Amino acid sequence: FGSRVELPESIPARSWRLQALDGAAMAKPGYEKPAATGMAAGLNKGFIVTRRVLRQKPSYRRGRKGERVGLVREVVREVVGFAPYERRMIELIKIGSASTFKRALKLAKKRLGTHRRGKKKRDEMSEAVAAMRRKA
Question: Does an H or E element contain 112, and which?
Fold first, then answer.
């Protein structure tokens, strides 16, 4: 179901029918499944059918940040500020050496639980420091 199908010109290219998986597909981007041969054996075995282009599932946008959510988070961050551990991370990042950058990750990992979350938080705090520098 991840293959692109040639659409007739009567259907606009940006139609809701066009299935744009954007990273949710199992195959690599640009991969097109070969047409069935009609034989019962072989790599592309199977009955020859015309492929339907399906509407994109709502579950494929899971985890993508919406416009409203982004705005709300921005306002909350502006009003509430940073948590104490985030302020400490910012101080470590401001020092700017490799060891303090690593220590910031270690601190984030300890507070947030996983390496991936820690890296994401450290990047977020680095971005905050860069924004402060741009402002000043």
Answer: helix 98-112
Structure tokens at 67: 């416009």
Rounded to whole angstroms, how far apart are CA atoms 124 and 128? 6
**Residue 75 C-alpha from the chain's centroid:** 22
Residue 124: which of 74, 80, 72, 79 has the closest Cα?
Answer: 74
Nearest-angstrom CA–CA distance, 127 and 136: 14
* Block residue for tokens 């390496």: 115
Q: Which H helix or E strand runs over 127?
A: helix 115-135
50's tokens: 């015309």
DSSP state letter for 74 = H
Number of H helices, E strands in the chain: 4, 0
Count, residues in the chain: 136
Q: Residue 111 to residues 32, 90, 96, 131: CA-CA distances in angstroms? A: 44, 15, 21, 24
Per-residue pLDDT tens digits for 78-120: 999 999 999 999 999 999 999 999 999 999 999 999 999 999 9
- Is the pTM here over 0.85, yes or no? no
Q: Structure tokens of 90?
A: 């910012």
